[in-house]
Every structure is written in structure tokens, then in C-alpha cells.
Write a structure and sequence with these properties.
Layout (H helix, E strand, L loop, with lengths): L1 H98 L3 H159 L4 H107 L1 H5 L7 H10 L5 H23 L1
Length: 424
Amino acid sequence: MLQKQETKQFQDLTCKAQYAKDQQDKKFEQEKGTLIRNYENDLDALNRQQKLQVEKAEAQQDMDLRFSSKRLRLDQERDLKKFREDLKQEVKLLKQEVDLMPKERRKDMFRIRREKLEIEHAEKERAFLEKLNESHELAMKRLADNHRDKIARLERQFLEQKQQLLRARENSIWELEDRHIHERHQLDKRQLKDVFFLQRHQMLVRHEKELEQIKRMNARRDEEIIKRQAIEKRQLPKHIRAEMKVREHMFRESLRISMASYPDSPEQEREKLRRFQEQEKKRYKAEQERQEKKHRRQLEEMRAMAEATIKELEQLQNEKRKMLMEHETLKLKQHDEEYNASVREWKAQLKPRKQMLEEEFARQVEEQEKFYGASYAANSSIHLSDYDILAVSSSSSATTPTSHDGSVGSRLSLSSSFTQQRSS
């Protein structure tokens, strides 16, 4: 019955421990899932923000290029108009010079010098137009590069934010794993203590029952010996009286025989009989005292033996409890050592995990640097405003509208393709 009860207690404890572990694993999965989802939401929000800002920067870039190109072309048209006015003024000056010559040479000289001047004007206008186109091309290129650098810095900024967010996520995961390892250790340790607590409880119950059984056995033996001694005590007077009667009868017969040979007076005979009876009473009393001493000795020996048995049992039980406690201490120590070993192993895996993460981040930065070029790596760019473009137009010139539109389209397509690549 006791064994069945102990088996049921262990089964209940095992089921309870397994349920606690399942609940803990479920809780850990929920905590990790919630943490990852929160960081995924933050990452998605950052990606959406990046997409919006890049699209806004690209739209602003297109608008700036178109506006700057249009304004630059207007300035160049004014410069070209002024340039052509200057050429016309040279023709007028030539006519005035020719009018000062003799009339007969005037017509031929004007024709010759005008043809020569037209050739010079055509060459100057061609060179001036080429200079304007080159100035336009240079200004548009520098402005497009400036916008490209801005988008590159924007992409770099978002990449650093994403990587910082991923670092924070990994750090949170590592802290969560560390806490989970510690909580698993605490739960296992607590369950191990519960097992040993149940074993101690069951041992105490068994020891109490063993002690009660020994005490009951000793009590039965004590009752049995007391009953037997009581019977012997009751039987002793009867036995002694019967023996006294026999001995008195034998004494009387002996006295009668001796009186026949050596006759004594009746008083002497009564005196001898009286002394004999007194001796018998003394012997009876001595026999009672001997029996009482014997009974006391038997009872004392039996009780001493019972007490020794109880002490021996208690000593054995104490040794068993001590062995159980030592076993519990050893198991807890082994459990702590296993926990420390698992923590060391987990910490040893952190370094390669961090290294892999940083290598992936470095690869992403390298890909972005390759995509945007050396200006991205140097993190320095030329900042041009509308005033800067006008200043360039006054000293140099730019490309035709056709080449400008192609440059804008190429910049937009490059930025859009990289944004899509990083988002994927």
C-alpha cells in the first residue's frame, strides 16, 4: 500500500514537472516570437520610410535637373543672342570701314571682307555653341552627381539604421537566450529539489512506520513478558505452598522416625516443627524475592534490548537521510556544473555569430559602395545650388537637352534599381 502511494506521488510529480517545462517552452517561444515580430515591424517601417524618402529624393532630383536645365538654357540663349548681336555689330563696323574707302573699290572690298568675316563668324558661333553645350553638360553632370551622392548618403544612413536595428535585435535575442538558459536551469533545479523533497518525505514516512512497528513489537513483547511474569507470580505461591506441604509432611515423617529412635518431649518436637516452618517461610519469601529479581532483570533486559534496537534503527535511518542529503548535494552540484558548461558553450558560440553578422554587414556596405562608386566610400560630395549652376554657366557651358534627359534617366534608374535590390 505504501509502495503504491509512493509510486503515485512520483508519477504526479513527474506529470507536474513535465507540464511546467511545456509551459516554460511555450512561454519562451512566445517571448522570442514577440521580440522578432516587433523588430520585423520596426524594420518594415524603416524600409517603408526609406522607400518614401528615396522616391521623394528622386522626384526632387528630376525636378531640380529639369528646372536647372531650363534656366541654364534660357541664360545660354541670352548669351547666344548677345553673341550674335556682337557679330552683327562687327558686320556694321565692317560696312562703316568700307564706306570710308574709294567708291570704285568699295563693292569688291566689302564682298571679300564680308565673306571672310562670315567664315570667321561661323567658326566663332560653332565654337561658342560647343562651349555652351559643354558647359551645360558639365553643370548637369555635376548636379546629377550631387543628387547621386545625396541618395548614396541616404541609402548609407538607412543601411546603418537597419544594421543598428539588426544589432539591437541580435543583442535582445542573446539577452533573451541568456535569461531562458538561466530560467531553465532554475526550473530544473527546483524540480530536482522537489524530487529530493518527496524522497525525504517518503523516507520520513517509512522511517516513522518502521519505528512505530518496532515500538509496537516491543510493546507486545513487554505485554507478553508482563503477562507471563504475572502468571508466574500468581503460580509461585501455589507451587510453594504445595511444596511446603510436601516438605512439612516429609519433615514430620522424618521427625516421627527420629522420635522412635530417640524419643523427645512434645515441646521439643513442637519447637523443631516451629523452626522448620519459620525456615520454610523464609525460603518462601526468598523464593518470591528471587522471582521478583528475575522478573525485574528480564524486563530490564528486554527493555534495554528494545531500546538498543530502536537506537540502532534510528542510527540506520539517520545514515540513510545523510546519504540522501549527500546525494542531493552532489546532484545539485552536478546540475550547476552542467549549467555553467552550457553557459560557457553558449557564450563561445556568440563570437562566431557576431562575426558572421558583422561580415554580412560589411558585405552589404561593400555592395552599396560598389553600386554608388568611390564618392560613396569617401562620403564626400559636391553640393551645387541653383546659384552654383548659374555661376558655371557664366564661365563655362552645358550639354544639349537631349543628353541632359538621358543623364537624368540613367541616375533615376540606378537609384531605383539599388533601392529595390536593398529592399528585397
